[in-house]
Amino acid sequence: MSRYDLIQHVRGESYFVDDFISPEGTLYASIFFSPKAHGKIKSLNIDEAKISNGIKAIFTSADIPGENQIGGIIPDEELLVNDEVNYIGQPIAIVVAETPLLAKQARDKIKIDISELPVITDPRESFKKGNLIIPPQIFSLGDVDNAWKNCDLIVSGKAETSGQEHLYLETQSALAFPTEGGGIKIYSSTQGPTVVQRTVAKVLGISMNKVEVDTLRLGGGFGGKEDQANAWAAMAALASFKLKKPVKLVLSRQEDIKLTGKRHPYSSDYKIGLDKNGKIIAYEVAFYQNAGASADLSPAILDRTLFHSTNSYYIPNVKATGYCCKTNLPPNTAFRGFGGPQAMFVIETAIYKAAEKMGIDPLIIQEKNLLNEGDEFPYGQKIKNSNLRRCWNELDEKYHLARIKNSIEDYNKANKFLKKGIAVMPVCFGISFTNTFMNQASALVHIYSDGSIGITTAAIEMGQGINEKLRKVAANIFSIDINKIKIEASNTTRIANASPTAASSSADLNGKALEIACHSLRDRLTSSIRQDLKIENNIAVHIKDEIVYIIDKPTKLKWEDIIKSAFMKRVNLSSQSQYATPEISFNKKISKGYPFAYYSMGTSIIEITLDCLRGIYKIDSVKVVHDFGKTLDKIIDKGQAEGAIVQGLGWMTIEDIVYNDQGKLLTDSLSTYKIPDINFSPDNIDINFLENSVNPMGIFNSKAIGEPPLIYGIGVYFALMNAMKAFRPKKIFNISAPLTPEKILLSLYSNYTDHLTSING
Ligand code: MTE
Ligand code: LUZ
Ligand code: MOS
Is residue 297 within 8 Å of residue 191, measured between CB atoms? Predict the structure, then answer.
């Protein structure tokens, strides 16, 4: 186990928000939310709730001292509904009582009368009605309209992916308490303490310096707490601010599933044109993003969809249009990949369908069009230091694609109802926030007089191992025992104006900021040593394994000695630093620029066995060659790749979010929403690290890893489609993701008689 808090986790000793020892007098909040997806509030009756046992207060929009507004990108989201409800689960009132149970009991006594309005859950319907949150966004390269005539084959169709529930282990939680002078302090389970701080300040009508947000760690975020921790923190803060008491708000699992947004479902139209050799000449795509009832991060997510509309391929003529469609569902939000996976699913579908028409294997088209060094993306950036082909070739050399394909063909010939399928899935994911200004971070490092070190950055530990990576950076620069280093909670008083821990960039951004701070401390320490030992500037001094070396000779001076001496000489043993990614820029007006510091890339093979009698399947293996750069921590990176892959597999297969046409979530618990478990997961996930890859834009030449491998999971959809094709060679399947077993079964057979006839031969 390489992560330093793992032992603590296993023993149940780590603190999450609900574990903090509550201050004396802590009260508990419960949220009353809209039972209807669209309508006007005619009346809200809190009479009975107000006299409920243990009740302390009920707050509605009228009680908000500042702005009733939490929209980050667009101010279109009320904290508490004032007049019109827009989704089931939208918060209307905060009920505060002596215990969590009493708060829920009081909450359930609130009565509401809503005059209902028409409900829209489908993004295309919303588009038709003109309900767009932002104007259509377009990325283009070359001249698509003129390119079709040069194509030997044109294929068009529709591709759809469903949402995905984050299902972080720790539900949304916040604990707020008043501080002197009308301020507030909040322990929040958030990926972005600064956005929580900004939101709370706005809602309470106070300045940001009066709001302190502290985040020790998350029990998972996966994007679900990049923006959507704000509301709960603001509600706890509002109640606490008003009552001058500590207030804790922890959503139950079912509330969390119902009330919060998910990965965006997309419905897309594509048109792809190729020459007779399989070279892609033109690609046109329209993305209908199901944004839910307010903007949240949808516009930024739609941007990334457009950035990744061509995945790992070079296509000379592209037109990609994105529509951010408002619907009566909870606002959908960031989820590992941030709109990228949705886009990549569509181009892979287009390639699959073109291959089907041509009667060839999709991987021939994939390989032929793989990005080469210097190829241009539709947004103008050209790929540099591309290892995409190296990853592809190494995967092929190691696992022999042709051989796997032959053995699958033999297997499928020999088995009537069991069919194997294989797909190859390459990935090329841009690393940097696409909003350039967000690519900055800062670090604060204290060396205490006993030689131990405390580090604060904006990076939030949510299971991805960032704390261990940061410790490694500092331990490496100072050349000291890693156990001397502690990573402190992220805190807005120590680290200001921070971007959320997101976009897989936290190790790069915070690591590089930390590197700068550590270097300046090391420089101060070296001059302190020179002074102590009376050594000239031209003689090399360094610390190795906590011992001072002059040129290459060890001295008697140890780490503790030099710290003590520097302290006695009044050397500043604290350092604060900022890092901003160089080189990147993006012109939003023309949708061109150089938005990404670099790309995370690789290729995978996914193999499955489908039981065509029952529609059930087993994912046999996922084999990957991925470019991790020079990994900072092999075990952590491998864990990130494996976890992301399984999450991607779940999204494509068994995770099925269902809303009815009245906007009610039918899959609001784990009995109806299935996620991968150890039995579902492939027996064999082979992660190979591409050798000899360095990346100066990443910390210590490493590469970001948090999100990109999720995209490998998309391959399972096409592997399943191939197995279905082996069973029904003449049938053309057009099925939306996820490919649940029931959906597969219903697609393989036209009806019950058909099924029976098949069984009986
Ligand atoms: N891994 C764990 N265990 N838990 C998480 O919540 N979030 C993912 C990824 N890996 C997540 C995770 C997402 S969405 C992102 S953006 C990155 O971690 C963020 O962390 P990083 O920037 O350190 O990679
Ligand atoms: N968040 C964000 C992200 O604000 N901008 C991004 O580009 C991004 N990318 C991935 C995940 N979160
Ligand atoms: Mo990850 S979707 O950037 O939080």
Answer: no
440-580: CATH class: alpha beta
Which ligand ends up closest to the CA of 709? 1
Distances 319 to 146, 160, 493 between C-alpha atoms, Å? 12, 19, 45
Residues lining ligand 1, CB < 6 A? 220-223, 336, 462-464, 466, 501-507, 640, 643, 704, 706-707
Q: What atom of ligand 2 comes closest to residue 434's alpha carbon?
A: 7
Q: How far apart are CA 622 and CA 680, in angstroms?
A: 13
This prediction has a pTM of 0.98
Tens digits of residue pLDDT in 251-277: 999 999 999 999 999 999 999 999 999
Output the CA 551–ligand 1 centroid distance in Å: 42
- Residue identified by tokens 């190790």 is 507
Domain 4-118+166-259 in CATH 3.90.1170.50? The answer is yes
Q: Which of 303, 344, 433, 707 to mutate to test the pocket of ligand 2 (most atoms within 8 A of CB)?
A: 433
Distance of CA 639 to the CA centre of its chain: 16
Ligand 2 centre to CA of 337 (Å) is 8
Q: Which helix (H) or strand (E) segment is 733 a member of?
A: none
Same fold, 4-118+166-259 and 266-434+590-750: no
Most informative mutation of 338, 381, 508 for ligand 2 (most atoms within 8 A of CB): 338
Residue with token string 């219903």: 746
C-alpha 631 to ligand 1 mean position (Å): 16
Phi then psi for residue 463, to 5 deg, are: 105, -10
Q: How confident is the model at residue 1 (pLDDT cuts 50, 70, 90)?
A: low
Indicate the domain borders of the chain.
4-118+166-259, 266-434+590-750, 440-580
Q: Which amino acid is at 77?
A: E
Query: In the CATH hierarchy, which top-level class contains the domain 266-434+590-750?
Result: alpha beta
Residues 6+ positions from 312 with CB-CB distance below 8 Å: 366, 370, 371, 388, 426, 427, 428, 601
List, in sequence order, every residue forming a beta bridge with 558; answer none if it has no partner. Answer: 547
Query: Which residue has a Cα nearest atom 5 of ligand 2?
Result: 433
| Phi, psi of 517, rounded to the nearest 5 degrees | -65, -40
Structure confidence by residue, pLDDT tens digits, 567-599: 999 999 999 999 999 999 999 999 999 999 999
**Shortest-distance Cα residue to atom 1 of ligand 1:** 464
Q: Which tokens go with 478?
A: 């100072």
Q: How many angstroms does the Cα of residue 464 sit away from the middle of ligand 1?
A: 5
Largest separation between any pair of C-alpha atoms in the chain: 94
